[in-house]
Amino acid sequence: MSRFLAAIQFTALLLLVAPQIVAPQAARADWDDQPGFGFTGDYLVTSPEAPCGTGTPPRGHFPPEIPTTAPFQIVTLTVKQDPNRLCYVFGKIAEAPTIRVRQGEDMFIKLRNEITDPAALDKLVPVGHLDDPNPEIKAEAGTYPVEPAMHHKATGRTNLHVHGLAVSPNVPQDETLKTCVDPATGPSPTSPAPTSPALCGRREFVYHYRIAPTMPAGLYWYHPHVHGEVQAQMLMGLSGALIVEGPADDARRAAGIEDRVFVIRQSQDLDAPPPAAATADAAPAKPEAAKPDAPKPEAAKPHRKRPKLEGEQIDTADEMACSDNAGTDELTLNGAQVLDGDAKDTDLAHLEIAAGQKQLWRVLNAATDSFLDLQLVDETGKAVPMAIEARDGVPLINDAGNLLAAESTAAAQLVPPAGRLEFYVDAPAVGRKLYLVSHKVDTGCAGDKVPERKLAYLTAIEPTQPLPPAKLPAPITTAALPGPFNGILARKTDKVRTLAFAEYPHPGSDDLNDFYIFERKPGAVVRPYDMGGEPAITVNAGTTEEWVVENWTNELHAFHIHQVHFRVLEVNGKPEKDPELLDVMTVPAARTSSGDVTKAKGPVMPGRIRIKLYFPPELAGDIPFHCHLVDHEDSGMMAVLRVLPPQTAQQRKAELTPADLLKNAPICRAADGTAPSSKPE
């Protein structure tokens, strides 16, 4: 028996017994009853009457943390539901903890689902459907037939994705396509019948992540990934930070530099109006009179200006659709509401630091579709340098794996949804203030409004005893560090592919609510993601490819692929001087040669990025890639890459693949409103 087949059979056994796993008392500690670190305030304590607590955190609050002092602990996250919000409950605390894990350690997370009313999520599930097949669409490489998307209906199932971690996409690690946990059954406040059929076959699941010693140390995060319900569950509160620590963190602490974790969430998406009550991470809603930009309820869904359809074709120029009434999404910072515009200091998170010292700020953009453009400024608005340490969890390294010095820059940093930025901040002079701001972002005329926002401010205090001026810790080594994605640029490119983002309306409609990503090649069909379908792309493990990702729409998209990081080679045809190693990248909006996007005159020029990816053998399996504006993802802008294990063709025919393991498992996705939700593959 080959190692691969043995591993598959072991995984199948683990899948069957995972819900009954009991940790050996001598080896692991279950932290269910621990209060966590950094917890203050009983308003976040769960109770039968208030499963997600009785309030929201104050500005300046930081989430509780699970430290790395117990390497074999099982972290239990229970998903609970208030009438209009969801929360991860850790112990007695109804707030997603920041989880810390060391390089080379195993991480166990037990996810339990206690959602009681899936129908409440339906209000936030994207429409994302077509009544009839679309006409064919003209494109550069010919005419592509288009298949309609399905109408999504909330089921209340959930699962967990550890975003950015280079861990296996197979059970029991980061398998997100079919692994899920069912909601609580029984009557709900809105339905006397059971809320949902038990299609996952379990109410809880133990994830076992193997964090390699070579995993880059930095900021990652976790969130649900049940297709069709990601936006609803994230808007209602489900996401949290995850930090992989290593020797550099030890050196930072030894230098007296503490870190701060900022989780930016989205509490409202104007494309999907939320329930009347506030979500788990939002303060009580402001009166409509105080929000002059808020659209009227009947106009909450943006209207798209589009040329009329001509004949039976929609040409590529018709992609240049603009919003007539784009909404402004609402954000929170560590659970407290962020105000738009020039907010007063009393409405901002206030941080303190000892004079002459430094802090490492780790910022996670966990918004469903809102971009950030981060910058440090003083009280006059003048830009102040930050020293960038890492992007998307990876410290700045060259292609060989050598650590680079922190990059000092005063320029604003664009952080797309799901992106992370880690940077050092110097204390301002005593009596002065330093602000963290996010500037206005032009997301394209079909995108949402992203206004200027102040997020937090920092002041310095005199230390109780003299402290030496803080210095950035020196790189822990000058030698190249081993890493899963070292040498990408030096590797020979085995294949070049072109992928395209596209959006299309209902036939005869002017609303862009079907979203696609597909490989643009002869014979391609533009189809939304289908959980029961075949992978869009198949590659052999150990290969290296370049992907040209095109954006044929008039709004920004955020390309993300699970498991791997990639180097960005070009943006709109312009080579990158220092190709960054990222797991999510902004794809520019399309343009027209005339420059008048509202009239769409002249040929369309798609926005383009060119990236280079390597697929390590240890990450073989089915790997999703999608737009991380999650309403786009939920509405079909997702596909799957299958990385075949390093075997001969004969072995591959004779043995199981990772997908074969779950071939007859139920499909874990939002139910199709036009078909039985229990339909198997």
UniProtKB/TrEMBL annotation:
<dbReference type="GO" id="GO:0016491">
    <property type="term" value="F:oxidoreductase activity"/>
</dbReference>
<dbReference type="InterPro" id="IPR011707">
    <property type="entry name" value="Cu-oxidase-like_N"/>
</dbReference>
<dbReference type="Pfam" id="PF07732">
    <property type="entry name" value="Cu-oxidase_3"/>
</dbReference>
<keyword id="KW-0560">Oxidoreductase</keyword>
<dbReference type="InterPro" id="IPR008972">
    <property type="entry name" value="Cupredoxin"/>
</dbReference>
<keyword id="KW-0732">Signal</keyword>
<protein>
    <submittedName>
        <fullName>Uncharacterized protein</fullName>
    </submittedName>
</protein>
<dbReference type="InterPro" id="IPR002355">
    <property type="entry name" value="Cu_oxidase_Cu_BS"/>
</dbReference>
<keyword id="KW-0479">Metal-binding</keyword>
<feature type="signal peptide">
    <location>
        <begin position="1"/>
        <end position="29"/>
    </location>
</feature>
<feature type="domain" description="Plastocyanin-like">
    <location>
        <begin position="207"/>
        <end position="247"/>
    </location>
</feature>
<feature type="compositionally biased region" description="Basic and acidic residues">
    <location>
        <begin position="288"/>
        <end position="301"/>
    </location>
</feature>
<feature type="domain" description="Plastocyanin-like">
    <location>
        <begin position="533"/>
        <end position="645"/>
    </location>
</feature>
<feature type="region of interest" description="Disordered">
    <location>
        <begin position="267"/>
        <end position="316"/>
    </location>
</feature>
<dbReference type="InterPro" id="IPR011706">
    <property type="entry name" value="Cu-oxidase_C"/>
</dbReference>
<feature type="compositionally biased region" description="Low complexity">
    <location>
        <begin position="277"/>
        <end position="287"/>
    </location>
</feature>
<dbReference type="Pfam" id="PF07731">
    <property type="entry name" value="Cu-oxidase_2"/>
</dbReference>
<dbReference type="GO" id="GO:0005507">
    <property type="term" value="F:copper ion binding"/>
</dbReference>
<dbReference type="InterPro" id="IPR045087">
    <property type="entry name" value="Cu-oxidase_fam"/>
</dbReference>
